[in-house]
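Bug #77: duplicate submission created two jobs. Keeping one. Sequence:
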Amino acid sequence: MPDAANDPGTAGLLFGAAGIYAAFLYYGSLMEDVFAFKSADGEQFQQAWFLQAIEALANVAVGLVGMLIQGPTSGLPKDLFAVSGLTQVAAKVCTTKALAVGLSFPVATLAKSAKMAPVMAGSLVLGGASYSLREYLQVLAIILGTVLVSMKGKSSSGSSTLFGVLYICGSLALDGLTGGVQSRLKAKQKEKGVVAKPYDFMFWTNLFMMLVAVVVSTGLGETFSGWAFVMAHPAILTKVLLFAACSAFGQSFIFYTISNYGPLKVAGITTTRKIFSVLLSIFLKGHKLSLLNWAGIAVGSIGIAGELLPKGKKTDKKS
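Kept job's structure:
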């Protein structure tokens, strides 16, 4: 867990950005490796709930240390943390399931970058905030880019790709629910006059994510089969443990950067990281792309980069 830079200057910002980039670029690569792994008899790792339980456990451990250092906050609305944990872990499982059934990492990453779409849709349906033309175009660019990258001249696993797309759509829908729950969480905190510190969020959210993942994983038999699989294949066990560690330390660097520089800086760092994750996967994992696919990467990246532009004030619709 990073503890450097009490002086929030350029060096500290570079420290935080480097930590986020290193942790999550490697995190994405490891996630792809875990679901691409094949044993000698052709068996693949499919236990997405088990993987999420391990990841959440690592985050709970780091979050607990950070929370104890900064001092825990009392009176937090734990019920909403529980709901947020449920929707977030389900969204992450849908993403990993998409990779498990064969959807490529670049497509999954671009598609997940469009999670603002269900949030916007929910706000519009409920009569909430209005959006600028640029924000609509940004979402459309990401969606169009994802569609173009998904197009392949030859595909031997069309049904798998279809299931992968459905899983990603489920993940996006759950992201929308998470956004709503987190808005209620902030409002509830305001009512109670409490403010959760960064590591409070990390600990409580991941604690409930872990509890949900353990229950579901055990109920589906993934806990025992997943444990047996990773113990039988030390190579994938190492990748799973590194994957969980990258998640925990990556989140810690995010909270460090938020605390010292605010969420806007973090948004810029994580936005560009998504683009580099896609490019890194393409070059390191041997994804073969046509000109049309590359056009999709370009269009999607422009849409993602749109998050870096200053946003105008949203106006609320009043009845």
